[in-house]
Amino acid sequence: MNLSYALSAYPVGVLSDAASCPSVRVNRKTLLLVGWGLNAVLYLGLAIAQDPWQVWLLVGGYGLYLGMTQGVLLAIVADRVPEHLRGTAFGFLSLLVGIALLPASLLAGWLWQSVSPEAAFLVGSGFAVAAISLLYFQRAAKPVD
Question: Is 123 a domain residue?
């Protein structure tokens, strides 16, 4: 996972940065949507995987998902927040992610133990689809001054 994350983060960053190569720039929102779509597919795959090689392949794909989303999300924040507030914005984003991870982890653990491991992955896939829907239909936000 870490290897695929490391190998994918830089090329995806190049795709999202206009200064790097304007002729092949991809919209950051599109990259984030594709990354979250990959996450949904990977979690679905983990729910139905039968063989260890399938799990290894899917976990490697998870690194690609991370490479497609982590830097791009931070770049989106940087695009929308004035320079003098970026540290605060990144800290607030980390706070919100940390707060959201606790109930998400509790739910996943409860589903894993009480229902099945497959249920935990299916619900994770469903949440990714919900996030895609929310981002896709979100109106474009104007940068904060």
Answer: yes
Is 25 part of any domain?
yes
Pick from 45, 101, 38: nearest CA to 69: 38
Nearest C-alpha neighbor of 117 from the set 64, 41, 45, 54: 45
Domain count, the chain: 1
Helices 28-48 and 2-16 cross at an angle (nearest 10°) of 160
**Tell me, what CATH number does 22's domain have?**
1.20.1250.20
Q: Which domain holds residue 12?
A: 2-136
Dist. CA 115–CA 107, nearest whole Å = 11
In this prediction the pTM is 0.87
In a domain, 144, yes or no: no
CB distance 37 to 130 below 8 Å: no
- Residue in 65, 54, 52, 49 with CA at minimum distance from that of residue 9: 65
| pLDDT tens for each residue of 37-79 | 999 999 999 999 999 999 999 999 999 999 999 999 999 999 9
